[in-house]
Amino acid sequence: MIERPKSPQSAAAAEQQLKEPVVFIIDDDLSVRRALTNLFESVGLHVAAFGSAPEMLQQRLPDVASCLVLDIRLPGLSGLDLQTELAKVNIHIPIIFITGHGDIPMTVRAMKGGAVDFLTKPFRDQDLLDAVVKAIEQDRRRREVAKAVAGLKSLFETLTPREREVLALVAAGLMNKQIAAELGLAEITVKIHRGHIMRKMGARSLADLIRMAESLGIGRGKPMPTT
Amino acid sequence: MIERPKSPQSAAAAEQQLKEPVVFIIDDDLSVRRALTNLFESVGLHVAAFGSAPEMLQQRLPDVASCLVLDIRLPGLSGLDLQTELAKVNIHIPIIFITGHGDIPMTVRAMKGGAVDFLTKPFRDQDLLDAVVKAIEQDRRRREVAKAVAGLKSLFETLTPREREVLALVAAGLMNKQIAAELGLAEITVKIHRGHIMRKMGARSLADLIRMAESLGIGRGKPMPTT
DNA sequence: GAGGAGCCCATACGAAGGTTTGTAGTCGCG
DNA sequence: CGCGACTACAAACCTTCGTATGGGCTCCTC
Predict the structure, then answer these.
(1) Residue B188: domain span
(2) If exposure means fewest CB atoms within 10 Å of the residue's CB, which of A68, A164, A171, B49 is most exposed?
(3) Which position has the higher pLDDT, B59 or B117?
(4) CA-CA distance, A33 to A147, in Å (whole number)?
(5) What whole-number distance in Å separates Cα of residue B196 and Cα of residue B187?
(6) Residue B5's pLDDT is what?
(7) Which of B99, B90, B98, B94 minimizes the C-alpha distance to B138?
(8) Which residues 41-70 on A are within 7 A of strand C at the CB atom?
């Protein structure tokens, strides 16, 4: 459950394994990569630059707030394609597109796909920096929420099947005797399950438990769009 | 609390006061308005068309699912400006932009501002219809949620100041005796307030009440981005 | 085949939640 | 000034919750 890779395979991802945000760059033009790298490093941001999408996809993405500065026009897998791919694999890194020759449909598709910003060359360095800072902050918040939910999920998984059933009915607001009837149990049994649930979930009050269940999409909530 | 206007002041808004969705159109070109109106009416959608933004702003917007098809280039108040204005006044109608001469920055601004879609002329009728249908569905869902929250709010407003304090602490998961201590009351008094709260809010269980409090941003929730 | 996990239940008891009935003080308003 | 609201509390009573102790069953694994 707790896994912590100790042998980083990529130099790029390795050095900022800790907590510093990282800006990923994908651009097939080396001089652009260099310029962007310099720009970001000049404000103290860590950078990992790649010449193509596949190069980046091979990497183990570090578990820190990050964003991706992406040229929309790339040989092979285009920027938009990469955006689609990442979404498919459930990687939600915020993307900032840059392009020299973009058009409106491309822009619309990118923004609909959740892009943070879309800049046309030439752009002001400051605009890109602003977008990057904003994107990283957004990713940081997203990761916070995701981590919290993941924590809840792992707690939930320590529950036995029966306990999960009981939890669902508790979250629905039924009384112990109603839950017992529903599941064909004695009330005392429900109480015991309930006690286990509270302890395992680390809930300090019913209000707590209800909110946890809500976050997990149990009882009355609709399933979350995942991490 | 229940208000239902019976004297519609605008013909346009009047005829679909009931439940049919409405497509608003703003375009300074009469022929475009006509064409779009025909297009939408041909698929059974109600339409209200205007030649400029102020014309529409004067209207009483009907309380039904709707969307706005907006030319980005308008004399006076531009489409983007209107989008900004509407956001300021807390009107969240989904907007579909259409334009003949758009550029990417405009597109980005529009999409960042929450636009549903951004079409460039010439576009396929079907694309516009798809966008409109999607936008209306989105608005319908938003209105549902907003209505539910508004209902909760009006219930909450029937609570006395003291009852609200108690509710907050209940939602935080405190026991009656703790709430009593916190507020300098006897436990029995808290129980009585609690009973009133349950009845006034129409909560059928504590789980119910907790979720209501959550929706209202009470206890542990963060304030919602409003309606 | 001993141990553990998961499930079920009884008895017993104390703690917490909730209602009813009745009392009482303060305020503001018509 | 009387009435209604909001507030607060007590006594009495019942329900619901929660836990502890102890017992029993099945299934699976080491």
Answers:
(1) 158-215
(2) A164
(3) B117
(4) 32
(5) 15
(6) 40
(7) B94
(8) none
Position B17 pLDDT exceeds 70: no
Domain annotation covers residue B184: yes
Distance B182 CA to D7 C1' (A): 16
Mean pLDDT for chain A? 89
Does A121 lie in the same domain as A199? no
CB contact under 8 A, B120 and A105: yes
Per-residue model confidence (pLDDT) at position A213: 97
Check whether residue B25 and residue B124 sit in a common domain.
yes
Residue A4 lies in a domain: no
Question: Between these two residues, B58 and A177, which has the higher pLDDT value?
Answer: A177
Distances (CA, A) of A60 to A5, A48, A63, A78, A205: 10, 12, 9, 21, 40
On whether any CB of chain A is under 8 Å from the CB of B121, the answer is no
Domain termination site, one of A121, A145, A169: A145
Q: Which two tokens stand for residue B178?
A: 């703790």
Q: Are residues B23 and B95 in the same domain?
A: yes
Query: B138-179 pLDDT, tens per residue?
Result: 999 999 999 999 999 999 999 999 999 999 999 999 999 999
CATH of the domain at A37: 3.40.50.2300
On whether residue B4 sits in a domain, the answer given is no
Looking at the domain assignment, is residue B173 inside a domain?
yes
State residue A14's pLDDT score. Answer: 46
pLDDT digits (tens, 9 = 90+) for B99-109: 998 999 999 99
Residues B46 and B131 grouped into a single domain: yes
